[in-house]
Design goal:
It is a single chain. By secondary structure, the chain is an alpha+beta fold. The protein is 19% helix and 34% strand. Strands 1-2-3-6-5-4 form a 6-stranded antiparallel β-barrel. A 6-stranded antiparallel β-barrel has the order 8-9-10-13-12-11. It is globular and about 65 Å long.
Length: 363
C-alpha cells in the first residue's frame, strides 16, 4: 500500500478518498425539436369590456390552456399504458408498436420469462419477456399483435430541454393510469447511490407502481421510462431516456440479443467542489475508479484516477455524456479519449486511442 501511495502521489490518493464509488454504462440517438406547452400560449387574448347585459365569453388563460393540454395528453397516451405483474413484482409498461411491443423496467419483470399484462380495456393477456438489461433497468415484453391496440408515439430524448413539461403515467399502488405533471428538471443525471446513469430527472411524482410507465412531453410523445425515485428528497424522480429503451427493443426484436460498445471502466463523476478543494486542473469529467483487466481501456493504457474530459470532439462533463457518446458508437470503432493524468509529479493531459469492444447481453 505504501508503494502505491508513493506511485500515485498524495493529491491523487486524496481524490481517491474524496469521491464516492460508482459505475456507469451506456447505448443510442436521433430526432425532432421539442416544443414547450406554454410556448403556444404567449399571446394572451385581450377582450374589450362587454356591453351591459351581453353574454360574456370566458377568456382562455394560459393556465387553463395548459390544463387542457394535460387532459389531452392523458387521454392520448393512457390507452397505451399497461399494468405488468410477474411472480416477483408489478408495475407499468407502455405499448410502442402495433405488433404488441411493450417497454418496461427490468426490475418489474424480474427473472420471469412470462408476465401478465393488463390492458386499458381491462383485458388481461399473457406477455413474453423478450429480454432485459439490468444495467439500464429496461425490459421488453411482447403480447400478441392486434389491430385495435393503442400505441404511444415515441419522442426523441436527445433533444430534451430543461424546464419543458413532463407528464408521468402509470399504476402506482394499483391505482390504474394515474397522471402526474411537472417539468424536466435535468438531463444526463447520474445520482449518487443509484447504479444508473444518463437519466432524465423530473419533479412529476413517481411512486411505486409507476415504474416502467411512460414519461411524456406536451405533445404526448414518450421521452422516458419511469424507473426510480430518490428517497433522500422529495420531488426527485428519474426516467431512462426513451432513445436508449427503444434501441434495446429494436435489437431484441431483430437480433434476439442486446449488443453495445464495451469500454471497460467503473467511474465516478468529478464534483466541482472536490476539484476545487484539491486544486485540480479541471472541474468536470469522470474519474476512472477501476479498469477491467484486458478491457479496451486497459489495453489502451488508461489508469485508475485518470479524469476523462473528452471523447473525440465531445466534452465529457458527467457520466451521462460518457454514456451518450458510447451509445452513438459501434463495437469495433476507435475513439480518441482525452484524460488528465494525476498519477505523475504534475497533472498532464494525455490522449489515447481506444478500440471499443462488444458486450453482448442475451435476450
Amino acid at each position: 500500500m505504501k508503494s502505491v501511495q508513493r506511485a500515485i502521489g498524495a493529491g491523487a490518493m486524496a481524490l481517491l478518498v474524496g469521491v464516492g464509488i460508482g459505475v456507469g454504462h451506456g447505448l443510442t440517438g436521433g430526432g425532432e425539436e421539442r416544443e414547450l406547452a406554454w410556448a403556444r400560449q404567449q399571446a394572451p387574448a385581450e377582450a374589450a369590456a362587454p356591453a351591459a347585459g351581453a353574454a360574456q365569453t370566458p377568456v382562455r388563460t394560459p393556465q387553463a390552456s395548459d390544463e387542457q393540454n394535460v387532459i389531452r395528453v392523458a387521454r392520448q397516451v393512457s390507452p397505451a399504458v399497461v399494468g405488468i405483474a410477474s411472480g416477483e413484482a408489478s408495475g407499468s409498461g407502455v405499448i410502442i408498436s402495433r405488433e404488441g411491443t411493450i417497454v418496461t423496467n427490468a426490475h418489474v419483470v424480474g427473472r420471469a420469462s412470462r408476465v401478465e399484462v393488463s390492458l386499458a380495456s381491462g383485458e388481461r393477456v399473457a406477455g413474453r419477456v423478450l429480454g432485459r438489461d439490468r444495467t439500464v433497468d429496461i425490459a421488453v415484453v411482447q403480447i400478441p399483435a392486434r389491430p385495435d391496440v393503442a400505441v404511444a408515439a415515441v419522442g426523441d430524448s436527445d433533444r430534451l430541454t430543461v424546464g419543458q413539461s413532463a407528464v408521468a403515467i402509470g399504476n402506482p399502488f394499483g391505482l390504474e393510469r394515474t397522471v402526474t405533471t411537472g417539468v424536466v428538471s435535468a438531463v444526463n443525471r447520474s445520482p449518487r447511490g443509484i447504479e444508473l446513469g444518463g437519466l432524465i430527472q423530473t419533479d412529476a411524482a413517481i411512486n411505486p407502481g409507476n415504474s416502467g410507465g411512460p414519461l411524456v412531453d406536451s405533445r404526448g410523445q414518450v421521452i422516458g421510462i419511469n424507473t426510480v425515485i430518490y428517497n433522500q428528497a422529495q420531488g426527485l424522480g428519474f426516467a431512462v431516456p426513451i432513445n436508449l429503451a427503444a434501441e434495446i427493443a429494436r435489437q431484441l426484436l431483430t437480433e434476439g440479443v442486446i449488443r453495445r460498445p464495451y469500454f471497460g471502466i467503473n467511474y465516478e463523476d468529478l464534483e466541482p467542489e472536490v476539484a476545487r478543494y484539491y486544486r485540480l486542473p479541471v472541474e468536470e469529467g469522470i474519474v476512472v475508479r477501476q479498469l477491467d483487466r484486458g478491457s479496451p481501456a486497459f489495453r489502451a493504457g488508461l489508469l485508475p484516477l485518470d479524469i476523462i474530459t473528452r471523447i473525440d470532439d465531445t466534452p465529457i462533463q458527467r457520466g451521462g455524456d460518457f454514456q451518450r457518446v458510447l451509445r452513438s458508437r459501434r463495437p469495433g470503432e476507435t475513439v480518441t479519449v482525452t484524460v488528465v493524468r494525476l498519477t505523475e509529479r504534475a497533472p498532464r493531459t494525455v490522449r489515447f486511442n481506444v478500440r471499443l469492444g462488444e458486450m453482448e447481453i442475451a435476450g
